[in-house]
Structure formats: structure tokens, C-alpha cells
Amino acid sequence: MKRIHLDDAEGTLFPAGRRTRVLVGKDSPLQAKGFVMGRVRIFPGGSIPGHEHFNEEIYHILSGSGEMEAGNETETVRAGDTVYLDPNIPHTLRNTGGSDMEILFVYSPAGVVEHWQEELEGKR
């Protein structure tokens, strides 16, 4: 058995107003063959900027509320909602509330999604 605690994952602070902590996958002591999983804290007014990738993905909203865009759809999301995202569909998540929004994400197949580095380099 392998174990990690959320506090053990320092994570990355992104310019769009969030901290992403990968718990399974890139830069984590926990590796899985088929998926990546992490936790994101999106600050008020922050976002996961628009992007798309070949992975299928879910976002599970743990706390807070916001606006999710996927393809041509836009919906309000809140704590308890789980959103499935098909591969290659552009998507964005914005925190429209007054407190931090916390989400879990899981995507498959495992690997590193390019939009993280692009955002850090100012390309998104």
C-alpha cells in the first residue's frame, strides 16, 4: 500500500488564480498506470482557463460554486456536482462565488496535460 496526505503535495500556484495539487501522477509519489488525480483550490475570481486535451476527465466540486463551460454548454456548478468531460472538448471552470472553490479532478489516460505548462509560460 502507498499513501499520501494532501499536505504532502505542495502543488503549483497558477496565474489564473488557483493551486493544483497532483495526488496521483506527475511529481507525486503515487503513480497509477491509467489515470491522474488531484485537488484544486480555485480562489474567488480565479479559474481553470479554457483548454482541451485528448483525455477524458471528471471534475467533482467539493465546495464553493462557479460556472462550467464545456463545448457549447455553460452551467452553474456547486458543491456535490460531478461533471464528466469528453475528450477533445474545450472546457473552462470559473469560481464565481465569494469563497474558495475546491474540486477533485481525475483524467485518463495518465500523463501530463500541456495546458498547465502553457499557462505558467503565459500562453493561456
Explain what this protein looks like in three dimensions.
- The chain is mainly β.
- It has one helix at 114-120, and strands spanning 12-14, 18-24, 36-42, 47-51, 56-63, 65-70, 73-78, 82-85, 91-95, 101-108.
- The strands form two sheets. A six-stranded antiparallel beta sheet has the order 1-2-3-10-5-8, covered by helices on one side. A four-stranded antiparallel beta sheet has the order 4-9-6-7, with no helix packed on it.
- It is globular.
Keywords:
four-stranded antiparallel β-sheet; 124 residues; single chain; six-stranded antiparallel β-sheet; mainly beta
| Shape summary | globular
- Approximately how much beta-strand content do the residues carry? over 45%
Q: Strand order within the widest sheet?
A: 1-2-3-10-5-8
* Strands, count: 10
**Poorly predicted regions:** none
Q: Between the first and last Cα atoms, what is the distance in angstroms? A: 38 Å
Mean pLDDT equals 92
**Contiguous helical run count:** 1
Largest sheet data: 6 strands, antiparallel
| H/E topology pattern | EEEEEEEEEEH
The amount of helix comes to under 10%
Supply Rg: 14 Å
Structural class by helix and strand composition: mainly beta
